Amino acid sequence: xxxxxxxxxxxxxxxxxxxxxxxxxxxxxxxxxxxxxxxxxxxxxxxxxxxxxxxxxxxxxxxxxxxxxxxxxxxxxxxxxxxxxxxxxxxxxxxxxxxxxxxxxxxxxxxxxxxxxxxxxxxxxxxxxxxxxxxxxxxxxxxxxxxxxxxxxxxxxxxxxxxxxxxxxxxxxxxxxxxxxxxxxxxxxxxxxxxxxxxxxxxxxxxxxxxxxxxxxxxxxxxxxxxxxxxxxxxxxxxxxxxxxxxxxxxxxxxxxxxxxxxxxxxxxxxxxxxxxxxxxxxxxxxxxxxxxxxxxxxxxxxxxxxxxxxxxxxxxxxxxxxxxxxxxxxxxxxxxxxxxxxxxxxxxxxxxxxxxxxxxxxxxxxxxxxxxxxxxxxxxxxxxxxxxxxxxx
Length: 394
Ligand SMILES: Cc1ncc(COP(=O)(O)O)c(C=O)c1O
Description:
The protein is built from 13 helices and 12 strands. With 394 residues, the protein is an alpha/beta fold.
């Protein structure tokens, strides 16, 4: 038989898959783990995952669901009680009325992004998104044969897309705009008026506005609002991963215009059948007052960490021109020390045991000049990291 282990051209993976990059942060993590295995102490400031465990009431609800044998498929759009609970949460916390029938439960916000892109982006359609931004977004667009149009954003607009960017970069092929607030990697937020201006622009052009609100709830200054209040034509992406501390449960949601829900339902049936059942039942406890109290206390702990880390990094000489107002990231300009942030990350890791993420994970614009710090570790460990950085830089 012919040996095909070398995968001849005809059997190669598709271009759509070959053009998807892996996360550079995984290279950092792999090296950090290797150093740890060799006995080194590593300060992890590279991971985009909360260090807090899933809250007790959610764990208990998950255990009850298991004990009750809730181990079968659910409807593709999710358990009705959870869709209702999310609608209730929008009403109570954000004063927004949304019908549960517009809420689709997904496998993390990743599932929501895939469903959304699969539904609104066709071959050759352009989607505007910020560079730097969450890397998977451009890959989702590529996966559905669309064209991710990275718009270089700078500190002047708090690293966010604006209505002016949409006016400048939209073409007849533009099918939608994706914004994220708070943003990964910059931790910056869009103001409610700017979001309204972007919405006005997309609405006038008859194109979609997708808003990634996965870090909603983790906002430290300014208003923690939802773009959902702007109209029933937006697609809002959210997750139980970050504020709710449920990364591994793989649960998120999408709020969609009513006319798209049957399409999303069909796509979800075909791609996933349903989101994880136990996770959906566990998440019902996420909206209980005691859980929300605990989650808000965690948000306050993140704020305290940010309030320590941002001035400390500035004192060391990193550029942080815009105050990060949400999520758990600081996007820092390291050009006073290097013109190669990727090499800088690995040198920093080898010499000091501090792990951070290189800018190239988030796009091309200014990537070699930036690194991302995550404050997903305790204040004491952040202090340790800053001390090591000070020694390294001096
Ligand atoms: C901006 C943004 N969107 C989406 C995701 C996907 O997260 P999940 O699928 O766990 O909800 C992440 C994860 O880090 C993110 O930072």
